[in-house]
Write a structure and sequence with these properties.
By secondary structure, this protein is of the alpha/beta class. Helix content is about 40%, strand content about 5%. The protein has 3 domains: about 20-145, no CATH class; about 155-260, no CATH class; about 275-465, Nucleotidyltransferase, domain 5. It has helices spanning about 5-15, 25-40, 45-50, 55-65, 85-95, 100-110, 115-120, 135-145, 155, 160-170, 205-215, 225-235, 260-265, 345-355, 380-385, 400-410, 425-435, 450-465; strands at about 170-175, 180, 290-300, 305-310, 315-320, 365-370, 390.
Length: about 475
């Protein structure tokens, strides 16, 4: 045997996965783990519910690419009483040790004698040269025999596999057809981190690939595959011909799939259904009553930020100075400590409280904000200022359109990509005065400051008339 043949033979044997020793836990024990995953638990929490260690749960989750095997999915039918269970196999092993015969074991288990006979013959432990019966080994043999493996379409269709790989991971080319390598990025088995180079590729999504096949090969029915089959080939080890590292070519670059319930539970814990914008009084929409505010943060370099508040009726603007705390950029943040960047929950709460308490009570009715972590102390803010805080739906900035428009105006003075912490409180007050004294078409060419003064004067006149 020459060296080349020897190397190819070694490579082939390396790819063949050994069945290994019989696992301690079998299908019935793994079902609680994947049921907990489907409920939104982390792999560590699911492992505790299944009664295994956290590293074992993490390994199960990664081996399956974040999704349960078809025979362990929540929707998969449970095994019927037609097949022997692990408990019955343990009873068989105990009775065999006692020297009981096949018919006596069948009588005690209320099974046919032929079932017990086949079980002892098929699933015995033969490594020692005999036919010893062990429950764990027998269950392992039964699980392996019950599998119904089906070859993945990408594994048996070379043309389809080449098409998918080229659209997913093919190199980027210039207008002249020259292949461009892009940044050199090593695969480390993990998702790419923020602000890092990513692999350049054609990066078609599996859905784009699946639908384009029907256009490129209208007459060839063999060139068809669903986008889910492509995802499974990418994420499930040993599923098909696509390597796991090709997940780096997906838009998300996610190396593991995220269960649906887990992603659904990622909302902010401090946002409840009672304080969503859908519960905000309808009278806020027509802007007839002043005192309803919208707020947000505009961000800049080095985690700098400025808080913005705008009153819906008068478009009056208040800017919040959020300077970084001492030690920002020089020392790591203390665990559970305040955000050193200066726009943590405590800093934003204090800044809003200081700004709002300078207004009369009739101008402090409600505040609408995005679901940002900087508003996690909204309950204390409501107590301090009297504002009722409401939150927009996720990814719905249009629900506070007045503030979004205001932020666009502010970018003239605080452009993106600049360090906003360089501006002092005096600078922010000057910009706010500039915008509050600028005529607005929506106010009949009055300024926000004039509109606010008119409201305050009318409120004072009503109060005086009431007391008289």
């Amino acid at each position: 045997m020459n060296a080349k043949t020897r190397r190819s033979d070694q490579a082939r044997r390396a790819k063949m996965r050994s069945p290994g020793r019989p696992p301690v836990l079998h299908r019935s024990e793994r079902r609680p783990f994947w049921r907990a995953i489907a409920e939104g638990c982390s792999s560590e929490e699911a492992a505790l519910k299944a009664g295994v260690s956290q590293p074992v749960g993490t390994r199960w989750f990664r081996e399956c690419g974040g999704m349960p095997p078809s025979h362990l999915a929540v929707s998969a039918p449970l095994p019927t009483g037609r097949y022997l269970s692990l408990t019955e196999r343990e009873q068989i092993a105990l009775l065999r040790v006692r020297g009981e015969g096949v018919r006596e074991i069948a009588r005690q288990l209320e099974r046919a004698a032929s079932t017990i006979s086949r079980e002892l013959r098929r699933n015995a432990a033969t490594r020692s040269g005999g036919f010893e019966y062990r429950a764990v080994t027998a269950q392992w043999h039964a699980d392996r025999a019950s599998r119904r493996p089906k070859s993945a379409k990408l594994a048996i269709n070379a043309a389809l596999r080449t098409y998918v790989q080229d659209r997913l991971a093919g190199r980027v080319a210039s207008a002249g057809g020259k292949k461009l390598s892009g940044p050199m990025v090593r695969w480390n088995g993990r998702r790419h981190g923020p602000r890092q180079h990513r692999r350049w590729a054609r990066a078609w999504s599996p859905e784009q690939i699946a639908h384009r096949l029907a256009i490129d090969f209208p007459e060839d029915s063999s060139m068809r595959i669903s986008h889910e089959a492509i995802y499974q080939s990418l994420y499930i080890q040993g599923r098909g011909a696509l390597r796991r590292e090709l997940t780096a070519c997906l838009r998300t670059g996610r190396t593991l799939r995220v269960p649906k319930e887990r992603s659904a539970g990622r909302g902010k814990s401090f946002v409840t259904s009672e304080i969503l914008i859908s519960e905000r009084p309808a009278l806020v929409e027509d802007r007839a009553i002043p005192g309803h505010w919208e707020g947000d943060l505009i961000l800049g370099l080095a985690s700098s930020a400025i808080g913005t508040l705008v009153e819906r009726t008068t478009r009056f603007i208040v800017l919040l100075h959020l300077p970084p705390l001492p030690g920002h950029g020089c020392q790591p943040r203390e665990k559970h400590g305040p955000a050193l960047a200066g726009h943590g929950a405590e800093a934003v709460r204090d800044a809003i409280t200081q700004a709002m308490t300078s207004f009369p009570e009739q101008l402090r009715r409600s505040l609408t904000w995005d679901q940002g972590a900087e508003m996690s102390q909204h309950a204390q803010l409501s107590i301090d200022t009297g504002l009722k805080v409401y939150f927009c739906d996720p990814q719905s900035p249009w629900q506070r359109g007045t503030n979004e428009n205001t932020n666009g105006l502010l970018r003239q003075y605080f452009p993106k990509g600049t360090n906003l912490s360089a501006h002092s409180t005096t600078d922010l007050q000057a910009v706010a005065i500039t915008l509050n004294t600028r005529p607005r078409k929506t106010l009949g060419w009055r300024t926000p400051a004039e509109a606010l003064n008119e409201l305050l004067n009318s409120e004072n006149q009503k109060r005086v008339a009431t007391t008289n």
